[in-house]
Amino acid sequence: MAAVKLIPQLLSWAVIVLVLLRGFPARRPIVTAACLSGFLVGVAGAVVLFRSFPETIPFGVVKSALGTGFLLFWGISVVALYRSTGRRVATSGGARFVTTSSGAGAGALLAGIIAGAVCACRLPGPDGNLPALLTLVLGAGILTLFALAVEKMLPASLTVSPSGVLTAVVALLLFSSSSILRLDLFSPLSMKVMKGVHDFVHQFMESVLIPDHLFVRSEVWGYIGLLFGKEVGFWGGMVIWFTPAILIALAISFERLPSVAHIRQGAQRRKLVAAAIKARRYRLVIPVLSVAIFAAGAYQSRFPSVEYWDPKPVPVSANQEGEIFIPKKGEIDLEDGKLHKYLFKQGGQEARFFVLMTPGGQLTVVLDACSICKPDGYGQAEGTVICYYCVTLIPLETVGKPGGCNPVPIPFAERADGVAIDGKTLINSWSSTVSATARVKEGGK
């Protein structure tokens, strides 16, 4: 079962090795050794982190490494496009280093470390599942040898530039991580763009006192409302997600052809130019395919193949003292580690909330809503709860803590046989939360 889950990650690893070998064909032994060594280091490092710290820290470290790689890719893509125009930049020494044995080995080692850590995070119980770890390492080794054999059969004309290698490696790493909810980058990126736009528009309107201006008609408010929809985050995230790969492709397309002014024979000049154009087209293959891989990663992030645990809210009522009591045991076991939703109605008002036993063994009671987003509720999967509105993942360890997109905590009293909640406090908390997020509407309408 664990091997089946690792198929996307291991296939991505095989293609990463293949691209690195093709990008540095003269340094196959160094690249192969660095890839395998890095992969083993990444797996071992992830296991140590999972054994030594709570799960949030290992996932955070790997996710930060992925994010740093994406930011580095962004910077290099801008530099590559700038250099394609013929201008010189101060990175020529770094560019030369990439083509050396040390540069190729260092790049392959870093790619292997991150890929190995991502694969380890995919395993169930990565801190102690020895058979799964051995299967992972063995599979990675076999696929590395397979990639080495395939690379030798590719035509020599199919070359890959250093920027193309980086594009493919980053795209494959992000694709392999997008199937792991706690490592996915596209959904958090879209969420941050959405919240950034929301906060900017809100602060701007308040600073210039737009609500007091009579010339702002309802039609104008309709357009402003579009900026408060989650589609802003999605399309903004798409721009940030795809731009670096497109810039690399443009940089290769804009590369200057060799000077042929010194060649007298026209046929020879045309032959030289045609060969340069053909080589440039071959170098475009990997960046163009990488754009498709980025698209696949974004799609996998947007529509993950995960079934969220999202039970139908169970109606509850309060006693004469206005107290809601939920037993720990019975038809529902509050201590089974799953979120359990409830619906409380009183005086024409209602409130949704859920009870959850966190990994630390503590029961917590929270609203099925946060203080930021539209109250679409939460689901649970792979050690997290997810906000359905902005697709933000909240580690189970932090549920019950205030702030951000975390579910709003509710005061409660834990007893030996259950939890008790004040009905009036619950209704008031729900009403104030929903009122505060009333400006966040579907589609900005």
From TrEMBL:
InterPro entries: FtrD-like
Bilayer-crossing regions: 6-24, 31-53, 65-82, 103-125, 131-150, 162-181, 232-254, 282-299
Pfam families named in the record: FtrD-like
Highest rank taxon of the organism: Bacteria
Domain Membrane iron-sulfur containing protein FtrD-like, first and last residues per copy: 334-427
Keyword Transmembrane helix: yes
Key words of the record: Membrane, Transmembrane, Transmembrane helix
Keyword Transmembrane appears in the UniProt entry: yes
Name of the featured protein: DUF2318 domain-containing protein
Protein's organism: Geomobilimonas luticola
